[in-house]
Please model this.
Amino acid sequence: MISSYLCRLVVLVCCTASHCTTRNTTEEDTDLADDPRSEQETNEAKVAQTNEGGEKLLSKVKMKKMTIRAVMGISMMVTFGGIIYLGHLYLCTLVFALQCFIFSELVGVRKRQAAEKRLPLFRSIQWAWFFVASFFTWSGSICDFVASDPRFLSSHSTARLLLEKNMMVSFSLYTLLLMVSVLSLRKGLYKYQITQYTWTVVTICIVVFQTQAVFHLIYAGLFWFVLPSSLVICNDIMAYYCGQVFGKKLIRRRFLELSPNKTWEGFLGSAFFTMLFAFWFSRYLCSYKWMTCAPERITFSIQSLSCEPNQMYQPQTIAQILYEMIPGLPTAEIFAGSVPVLKAIGELEICQAQIHALSLGFFASFAAPFGGFLSSAIKRAYGIKDFNNLIPGHGGMMDRFDCQFVMFLCTFVHIRTFCQAPLTIEMVLASAAKLSITEKQALVMKLQDELASR
Model:
């Protein structure tokens, strides 16, 4: 079941040819080209162009870089697929680890060694802010999940107490850290420390608060984590190839001053192919219960999921889907008329999830790339090519996940708005479990009166 899915993901990522060289500086403002090369690569290119047999040498250099990208891309996707197979909690652990790596890369952009030597605990305070923000977001998500399970609330009193008081714990940590941060200010370094704290807050907003919904996405069903991730990857790949094939041939106007190498053909072409991929890939994922079933508990044990698939993952006619999604629409009259084409369209079977996927594909094509543009602006501002050289051929973690952050946030808003009921029977039972015996009896009586009055 999973092997076929993993193979398809591996094929996708092998093509993600992103920038692979790294040049770290601490300049405040630079005017770098969109694809600057290191001194060594520049020398190799000059030798290749001027000496006999230079074209062959240049070809070898390019082949070496492409091979590194492909090998590392396959390795990352195999690892990612293996973690998906292990289960939901392992995937959450991976996301938190990625948050730590990306936070380290972003705060390191503005690091100045001379000032850091005079502030031995300053970096620790920055990390403390990150962990407090992470505790607040992750514990809140876990609390929301277990709050809908009456069994957990009735059998885990200690855990329930900790989760119910997570906001007070977070506020206490925030207050303590605020006091420590103010006391850490040193004369002569006020400006540097304040700007660093400001940058820390911005980084936390990018890395932590934009991904606060990831837990909800994973435990709503892996479909809602794998699909948006794949859409961003597909859009990135197709933007590269459409730009290479059609770039500046149809529209000569520059697409974006921030990234001169990007073209309108690449941007619009990738949107077209991303929408096609969203419609097909979502239907493919709907056929696997491992993707659509939501787990009932949080555990590291590997468990198989079995459930009755939600109606949105099951094939229905377009006419029926439109009738359910837009009750006031005269669906029967539209598709039962004398126009054969409309009647044939109404009888086509798709899944509601495919319509949701098209909406996410639209966002991944026209909004999510701006997360990458912001990342490019940060790198230009500080004169670096990549945030890190952690992954050979792919740069750092931020280079790989800059568009994913806003995509996850959009997916969470989408499923909360269009796919999930704001209140379920399980939520009501979980809330009722917190009431006293007298309050429960009063609730039952009011429900009986409500039913009798109807």
